[in-house]
Protein: Peptidase A1 domain-containing protein
Organism: Lachnellula arida
Amino acid sequence: MRRIWTAPKRTTPDVGPHAAAGLWLWITICLVARVAAATAPTALDVSPILSDRDVVAFTPRGTDRLIREGNDGPWSTFPIMVGSPAQDTRVLISTASTSTWVVAVQGCQGSDIPSNCSTTRGSLFNISTSTSWQDNGPWGLNIESNLGANYAADEGQFGWDTVGLGFQGSGGPTLNHTVVAGLQTMDYYIGMLGLNPRPTNFSDFNHPQPSYLSLLYENSKIPSLSYSYTAGAQYRLNKVLGSLTLGGYDDSMFAHNSITFPFYYDQSRDLTVGLKSITGSGGESLLPNGILTLIDTTVSQIWLPREACTAFESTFGLVYDETTELYLVNDTQHATLQKQNTSLTFTLVPTLADTVGVNITFPYAAFDLEVSYPLVNTTQRYFPLHRADNDTQYTLGRVFLQEAYLTVDYGRSNFSVSQRTWELNAPKHTVDILPQNATDSGNGNGTGTATVTAKPQKTSIGAIVGGIIAGIAAIAALAFGIWFFLRHRRRVSEEQKAAELAQAIERAAQQEQKHKAALAAGNADANDFGISRNPDAATYKHELDTPGEKTPEMYGSNHYGNVEMSAEELMAELAAREESTVGRFELEAPHELAELSGEDRRRMDCEGLHSQQQQRNARRNINTPASTGTPRPFSWQQE
Ligand SMILES: *[C@@H]1O[C@H](CO)[C@@H](O)[C@H](O)[C@H]1NC(C)=O
Ligand SMILES: *[C@@H]1O[C@H](CO)[C@@H](O)[C@H](O)[C@H]1NC(C)=O
Ligand SMILES: *[C@@H]1O[C@H](CO)[C@@H](O)[C@H](O)[C@H]1NC(C)=O
Ligand SMILES: *[C@@H]1O[C@H](CO)[C@@H](O)[C@H](O)[C@H]1NC(C)=O
Ligand SMILES: *[C@@H]1O[C@H](CO)[C@@H](O)[C@H](O)[C@H]1NC(C)=O
Ligand SMILES: *[C@@H]1O[C@H](CO)[C@@H](O)[C@H](O)[C@H]1NC(C)=O
Ligand SMILES: *[C@@H]1O[C@H](CO)[C@@H](O)[C@H](O)[C@H]1NC(C)=O
Ligand SMILES: *[C@@H]1O[C@H](CO)[C@@H](O)[C@H](O)[C@H]1NC(C)=O
Ligand SMILES: *[C@@H]1O[C@H](CO)[C@@H](O)[C@H](O)[C@H]1NC(C)=O
Ligand SMILES: *[C@@H]1O[C@H](CO)[C@@H](O)[C@H](O)[C@H]1NC(C)=O
Ligand SMILES: *[C@@H]1O[C@H](CO)[C@@H](O)[C@H](O)[C@H]1NC(C)=O
Ligand SMILES: *[C@@H]1O[C@H](CO)[C@@H](O)[C@H](O)[C@H]1NC(C)=O
């Protein structure tokens, strides 16, 4: 029998930055594989539209429900099939998660669970019926732990299983043995397709586990390690659905701009942008100071500093509900807001020092959302703004992707954000993002074998930065050594220097004599000089020193070899950001990590949630439809 929700292990899969080395190795391997591949794959379009069969099987009002899934907004879900035989389920898109999350049957068990729980949570995954499930036990989800204690405590039943894109028969690509988490928590009401290609490192497992996007790329199903996503906007045109393109982008969906955002130095927050201002259509300034904020579609709301929330409160007449921590909107207030019809313009910049940015404008309708069980007891309107306790919580959630089009290129470590355009029946124009040439992005070829070195997790950023600094120091030391040697040789030709050398040699010879004498006397102290038994070596004192100085280099190449590949990325970030001194950067990096992995976040008491989750452990019999689905390779056709 396989384990299902046994006593929580409370360990956390480490997707920390030192897994970056693995990713780089991965990319390198993939690039080599790509060069070898005869046929080039094209970008995959993942359509949120369900097949007829599922619309019928779903609810009588199936079509309407499809564009309005989720308990905190009308979100477009994407169909995937999980397990063998394949079970159809629907998920949202997470730019932060590195694995696929599906709501497990345990997620709808317990008292006070509505009877339509399974339907509203995107259809459940029954781990027990999947013959290809390989269990790895419960692990912390380890994403969004900066957003409060609830998120930090969330965990899933992890394992490996087959995951295919689209519904059965739709011909989407299917991959075996991918990391899947079965969710029980209510904090994520619907499952997630994780698009972050960082590998997942389970601490009881030697090798980092590749992400779904990496596997698609490695299997030549997509042309590059990249994706584009927009969440859809049910208030636009004929209720516009979301769009996900893997390995490319859809040119017909957005207004081009010239701004490219480099990845943030902290890999777990790579999609960080500068938010320079938020301006209302009446000229109101809603963001007193520019902030750095993460684009993260795992959560719905926009998390802003308290001053900004205050400005929103006065502009929109919002009232904060302390119980639910939401800006609930009653009917009267809703009518007023609709009449005001204030639109907001968010100005994004690569760094806060930049003056030229991208404007993304939102009509009020983008914030006119509803929230329902389990966040509130009865469905209500709310404004999707959340108070952030501090700068680690600043987030542009899925709401932001209603009017924005996000393209992320992991090969080039950059991304772009563009204003979504709305044209009825615009013809699709999917453009592939090609990988960089192997020589460009491989960059540190031949250094890939040092990935798996045991390092303390908490200091990994520090270790990497340390490694970089050690590497720089080693290069500097080596350069100095060479320079010194050449200079030394030049000077040897000079008489005075020759005399010096003669003296040095004489000294060394004396030392050598002493050494030999000591050796002859069998005096163990001889080794305390730290010189080798080769007497000639003693004459080249500097060369003796150099190995000592070179030690960091040896250390660096042995232990941080491919970390230095990501070092390149980090160094680029160093140049790009305001922090210009290496010293300060080094100090900040571990600090940032500690914030992210800290366990002592508190936001609200989560006692009720926990005990409720534990109560649900008893099994119930619900039949989920399942049929045989043989994996269909290649050529995913949308619609
Ligand atoms: C689910 O059930 C609740 C009440 O039990 C109801 O309010 C809600 O509208 C239902 N949701 C759907 C999608 O049918
Ligand atoms: C995936 O698993 C199925 C069934 O176990 C098998 O038939 C298929 O060949 C596997 N595909 C790959 C690419 O390994
Ligand atoms: C609706 O909310 C506004 C503020 O958000 C409040 O002033 C008003 O009294 C509320 N109206 C009702 C009927 O609750
Ligand atoms: C609100 O303003 C937008 C433009 O910002 C406009 O397209 C829309 O029709 C307006 N809605 C209402 C209800 O007036
Ligand atoms: C972006 O919006 C801001 C504020 O509304 C405005 O000052 C600026 O000119 C806009 N920039 C562009 C390029 O439209
Ligand atoms: C829902 O109702 C229950 C019981 O009536 C109450 O204890 C709980 O606080 C309510 N939840 C919310 C979010 O209002
Ligand atoms: C990434 O950078 C390259 C070259 O600098 C640029 O051509 C490309 O458009 C950028 N990609 C994105 C998604 O911004
Ligand atoms: C990649 O390599 C090809 C052929 O070697 C070359 O034509 C092309 O310009 C290269 N592209 C880049 C981005 O270097
Ligand atoms: C790295 O790649 C270059 C160009 O392909 C090659 O000349 C060089 O030998 C490679 N270095 C190592 C260490 O493999
Ligand atoms: C994975 O995590 C374990 C435990 O934290 C660690 O010992 C191991 O080095 C890590 N592996 C990689 C490749 O990062
Ligand atoms: C940010 O706020 C959270 C929740 O209040 C807190 O746990 C965390 O320590 C804070 N982080 C920093 C760096 O202040
Ligand atoms: C899950 O699958 C097991 C084994 O087939 C079955 O006994 C159980 O009833 C199923 N659970 C649900 C909720 O469908």
Q: What stands out?
A: The radius of gyration is 29 Å. DSSP finds 15 helices and 25 strands in the chain. Residues 460-492 form the longest helix (33 residues).
